[in-house]
Design a protein that fits this description.
Blueprint: H1 2-9, E1 24-27, E2 30-34, H2 35-38, H3 46-56
Antiparallel strand pairs: 1-2
Length: about 55
């Protein structure tokens, strides 16, 4: 996913190792996706679509 973000948005994605199955994506401190909240990993393209919506609005 980090590679896709870098490729599609030209931004460096920082991966932070967690534990207990935590998977979250944030931009400038704003949570964009949380596995804890949804109970699942994001579908392919789901995070990128959210990023596109935020960056073009």
């Amino acid at each position: 996913m980090a590679d896709e973000i870098e490729k599609n948005f030209g931004e460096t994605a920082e991966l932070i190792k967690g534990r207990d199955g935590v998977f979250e994506v944030a931009l400038d401190g704003k949570n964009l996706y949380s596995k804890k909240s949804t109970g699942r990993f994001p579908e392919p393209g789901e995070v990128e679509q959210t990023l596109t919506s935020l960056l073009t609005s």
